[in-house]
Design a protein that fits this description.
By secondary structure, this protein is α/β, with parallel strands linked by helices. Among the domains are: about 240 residues, Alpha-Beta Complex (Spore Coat Polysaccharide Biosynthesis Protein SpsA, Chain A), CATH 3.90.550; about 100 residues, no CATH class. It has a seven-stranded mixed beta sheet, sandwiched between helices. Strands 5-10-7 form a three-stranded mixed beta sheet. Helix 8 crosses helix 13. The longest helix has about 40 residues. It is globular, with a radius of gyration of 28 Å. It starts with a helix and ends with a helix.
Length: about 725
């Protein structure tokens, strides 16, 4: 009998989780079943056919996905109204927990990013953490995978300046990998293999992440009081959007996410998910269990797993480590793309990664909830081609009925209440139900906002927030068909075996020009015009039903250009639309980041345009930059982990000196990118180049070097 309390403490949470899973998903299934019966009844009334069977199957799948999204809003709303202690911050008191004896690494993996933005985000996070008095328990790491030599040099120079400004020697580290194998997950793995054993936890940030010091401290305290938790994911708030598109996305994230994520936590609980950044991870189990496998087959489905985060959470759960969403912890921030096209480029990478999860689904030992996370992620992209197939099938059925002359109503409805309804009225009922299911979470988010007076003020008041929801809904209606076409193309190109490259995400609000938008959207516009003309010829009444979808396609070019503009974003802000808490009352971290980025922007506008390979020139000519660069190379060469990598590059060999001679005599343009990187990775060659560039007679130097030396001398 003495063992019963322990058994109950294990079984009871499992029963509660099982009951929550059953209640949540059965609600979505029951709703789907009821509406699908109505839809099947409508199809039956007009005469059954094979195409109607296809249409019904597509409707069931698509409506189920929509119903699951709706249930997230419904369950999340009731949790926020009535409260719950089934969340990581409510299970045990943690605020008084001491951090003594803990060690946490805060890592920033980057790849050819804007080093100014990365380092200023790190600065804001560092200073915020310093204000908590707990800085001694944390170290910061910039983990570079940059392949652009100019970016590489700029990262080193700005890191050195930041360390000097903050007096943070021994607290902020910089490391660039020689070979960026396995992308971001390989970058993190390389860090853990080298330094991981020094740290009990690590917090993974993105290149645009900013985190409040109190939030970082709270995450470590939560891990300390919950020794069975392997990962805690925060919910980053979108900030610093300037374009109209960015501000709409930011507003939707801040208003809807609290309700949706509360609903997600309702059924996930300690079987949560990982989104790749702004999360704290227990180092030892992650190193032991989360090594990613190579998927069988060729790319894009086989090979390296691109969307590593979902899989790493699943592997953690498989080994009985808990994964939680700390959805009620504020102070976690990130930025997002500022235009439709840049957003679609990011979606392209995510699409391939999520489709790869179709193979991961069959991995042995995964939890059922983990498989559910993976399935929902896959259908986030597969839903688009299914939606397109639904619309095409519907047009086919309508076209066949139109040209065969069959009656619109052939039999009575199964439902006695609908027997006297026309087919149009029956279809309109289903349409209204679908719209309610789609719009209900947004409506509940507004009610949730109306309940909270301080939070209402953070969105500019309930009236402004309502106007923002209306504007966001109109934009989403126009944006949705473009996402449908983009996602469909992404899925089909992946099936065709075309893999996505690894490119730097564009986050600036520079704006989309008309020519670039026309290049990217002409296909969307053409599809909209052809589809619209066909629908009008088929039935003008049907055309008006399709108008919202067709409008998004036909006007895709101006929609893409205008929503990317800063001035329209500023205009919306002046009207009180799409306001967020971080705008109405910005936290100190965001204020610091914005002010310093403004200074950098003004300085960049006043500076002359940089020449090609200017970073390489600075690393060779500038004594300070050269010293920092060589020092970091020497430090890396002392580490046996990197000895093999240096050997692969030929560092220290005669080949490096030959490349150095070539770059001096002919200029950097005559070398391949890989050769320029090899030169910069050889510390002996870099020391020699610095000496030779200043000592050699001008006639023995390439014209490019002469120009760079004159420019550098004038600057000095």
């Amino acid at each position: 009998m003495a063992d019963l309390p322990n058994i109950e403490s294990v079984v009871a949470p499992r029963l509660r989780r099982g009951a929550r899973l059953f209640l949540f998903f059965s609600s979505a299934v029951l709703l789907t079943g009821a509406v699908s019966m109505l839809f099947a009844d409508l199809l039956w009334r007009t005469g059954w056919s094979a195409s109607r069977t296809v249409l019904l199957v597509l409707f069931i799948v698509l409506f189920l996905l929509t119903a699951i999204g709706c249930m997230h809003g419904v369950f999340g709303f009731f949790i926020r109204v009535f409260g719950t202690n089934r969340r990581i911050t409510g299970l045990k008191p943690f605020k008084e927990q001491s951090l003594d004896g803990t060690s946490t690494a805060i890592i920033f993996p980057i790849y050819n990013e804007d080093s100014v933005r990365v380092l200023e985000g790190l600065r804001a996070t560092y200073e915020s953490l310093e204000r908590t008095g707990q800085l001694a328990q944390f170290d910061f790491f910039i983990l570079s995978d940059s392949t652009n030599p100019d970016r590489w040099v700029e990262e080193e120079a700005r890191w050195s300046e930041l360390v000097r400004d903050l007096d943070a020697l021994g607290k902020i580290y910089y490391r660039r990998r020689l070979f960026n194998e396995e992308r971001k997950s390989g970058n993190v793995r390389d860090f853990l293999n080298t330094w991981g054993k020094r740290y009990r936890y690590f917090i993974c940030c993105d290149a645009d992440s900013v985190m409040r010091g109190e939030t970082l401290v709270d995450l470590v305290k939560l891990m300390e009081v919950h020794p069975t938790v392997g990962l805690i994911q925060t919910v980053p708030a979108l900030v610093n959007a300037e374009s109209l598109f960015g501000r709409i996305q930011q507003f939707a994230n801040r208003l809807y996410a609290p309700v949706f994520i509360s609903g997600l936590n309702y059924w996930a609980l300690d079987f949560g998910n990982y989104w790749g950044h702004n999360a704290i991870i227990r180092t030892e189990p992650f190193m032991q269990f989360c090594d990613l496998p190579q998927l069988p087959g060729r790319k894009p489905f086989g090979g390296q797993i691109l969307s590593h985060d979902f899989v790493e959470a699943a592997l953690m759960l498989r080994e009985n480590w808990q994964v939680w969403l700390a959805y009620d912890l504020e102070g976690s921030y990130e930025e997002a793309p500022q235009a439709l096209i840049e957003n679609a480029q990011r979606e392209r990478r995510w699409c391939q990664g999520n489709l790869q999860h179709g193979l991961v689904l069959f991995a042995k030992g995964l939890r059922g909830v983990s498989r559910m996370h993976l399935i929902l992620g896959i259908f986030g992209y597969v839903a688009s081609p299914l939606w397109l197939a639904f619309l095409i099938t519907f047009d086919w059925i309508y076209c066949m009925q139109k040209f065969t002359g069959l009656s619109a109503i052939t039999v009575d409805s199964f439902n006695p209440y609908l027997k006297n309804w026309s087919g149009t009225e029956h279809a309109f009922l289903i349409f209204i139900i679908c719209m309610v299911v789609i719009m209900l979470p947004k409506f509940l988010s507004l009610i949730d906002l109306a309940r909270d007076w301080p939070r209402r003020k953070e969105f500019g008041g309930l009236l402004n927030a309502t106007g923002g929801v209306i504007g966001e809904t109109i934009f989403s209606t126009l944006h949705a068909p473009l996402l449908m076409l983009w996602h469909t193309r992404f899925v089909l190109t992946n099936i065709a075996g075309i893999s996505v490259g690894w490119t730097t995400q564009k986050r600036s609000a520079a704006g989309t020009n008309w020519f670039y938008a026309a290049q990217r959207h002409w296909g969307h516009m053409l599809i909209g015009l052809v589809w619209g003309g066909f629908t009008w010829k088929l039935d003008p009444g049907l055309f008006w039903w399709f108008t919202p979808m067709l409008a998004g396609m036909v006007f895709s070019i101006p929609l893409s250009v205008l929503t990317s503009r800063r001035n329209l974003g500023a205009r919306a802000k002046s009207l009180g639309l799409f306001l967020t808490p971080e705008e109405m009352g910005p936290p100190m971290e965001i204020v610091s980041l914005r002010s310093r980025m403004k200074i950098h922007e003004l300085t960049a506008n006043e500076a002359a345009p940089r020449r090609p390979h200017a970073g390489l020139a600075e690393a060779v000519l500038d004594p300070y930059v050269n010293a920092v660069h060589v020092m970091l190379l020497r430090e890396k060469q002392l580490n046996p982990v990197y000895a093999e990598q240096f050997a692969r590059l030929g560092a220290g060999s005669d080949a490096g000196r030959l490349l150095g001679e070539k770059i001096l005599a002919d200029g950097p343009d005559k070398l391949k990118p890989s050769e320029r990187v090899a030169v910069m990775a050889d510390q002996r060659v870099m020391v020699w180049l610095h000496q030779q560039a200043w000592l050699r007679p001008e006639e023995k130097l390439a014209p490019w070097w002469k120009a760079m030396i004159r420019e550098f001398s004038q600057r000095e």
